Amino acid sequence: MFAVMNDIPKMIPQKLIEAARAQQRSALDEQAGKSLLASYGISVPQSLTVKNAGEVDAAMTKLRAPVVVKIMSPDILHKSDAGGVKVGLKSATEVKDAINAMAASPQIKAARIDGYLIEEMAPAGQEIVIGGLRDPYFGPLVMVGLGGIFVEVLRDVSFRICPITRLDAEEMLDDLKGAAVLAGARGRKPASRAAIVDALLKVGGENGLLMTHADDIAEADINPMIVSDNAAVAVDARFILK
Ligand code: ADP
Ligand code: MG
């Protein structure tokens, strides 16, 4: 099949979930996850999925370099750990080389491969994480944290029960011990607080994604969302179905 453009605004969110269930999948693949986010107004990079290196030339005429290539496989959860992410590719040749190298790696060879996601690089910024999970008593919860070691090592995260208000979203950011990083510590540009608050409301607010799909989504993980001084772009998305 030819490369499929991520047909973002037109996809009906519930259909993405039904399609995954029809294939007996317990999670949405990355492209479906990003389509779901986009249908709630969250920014995602422009992307295409190809089956192999032979489809790259056509795909690259529709995307703006530099791009990232990522393995798409229901068997690979942590793509970087499997050698399945290559960022900063500047040409179709670099993309093909990256795909061929991935296809030849033992860990990827052993997995079921859906294809390779080629996506535009998000503008540089601060990496944050937005997550969601379902508490058996309280229902959907939304989480925010700063990316990298802040979440993984320091566990500097903040949770609220959904639906959250704008004030809740602001307070969630104030709760983070590393909040100063967002304001542009160490000579970095500030990350747009407004863009993060907006994304948190789209995920955890009254008509947000987690409330709307509370019966279907067990866990949500946007890791990372890259926040520049004027935008917040979800560059990785994982949704585990109930
Ligand atoms: P995984 O978490 O499965 O290893 P990701 O999709 O999160 O894979 O990609 C790994 C890292 O590559 C991200 O944390 C981010 O730093 C970078 N990255 C991924 N996609 C993009 C993108 N579109 N633009 C910029 N950086 C990206
Ligand atoms: Mg990730």
Structure description:
The strands form two sheets. Strands 2, 7, 8, 9, 10, 11 and 12 form a seven-stranded antiparallel β-sheet that branches. The mean pLDDT is 93. α7 crosses α8. The longest helix has 13 residues. This protein is 30% helix and 27% strand. It is globular, with a radius of gyration of 18 Å. It starts with a strand and ends with a strand. A hairpin with a 3-residue loop joins β7 and β8. It has 242 residues and is α+β, with helices and mostly antiparallel strands. The protein folds into two domains: 118 residues, 2-Layer Sandwich (Dna Ligase, domain 1), CATH 3.30.1490.20; 116 residues, ATP-grasp fold, B domain (D-amino Acid Aminotransferase, Chain A, domain 1), CATH 3.30.470.20. Adenosine-5'-diphosphate binds next to β4, β5 and β10.
List the helices and strands and how they pair.
Blueprint (H helix, E strand, L loop, with lengths): L3 E2 L7 H10 L4 E2 L1 H10 L7 E4 L5 H5 L6 E6 L12 E5 L2 H13 L1 H4 L5 E6 L5 E10 L3 E8 L2 H4 L4 E5 L4 H10 L17 H12 L4 H4 L4 E11 L4 E3 L3 E4 L1
Helix pairs in contact: 7-8
Adenosine-5'-diphosphate binds next to strand 4, strand 5 and strand 10.
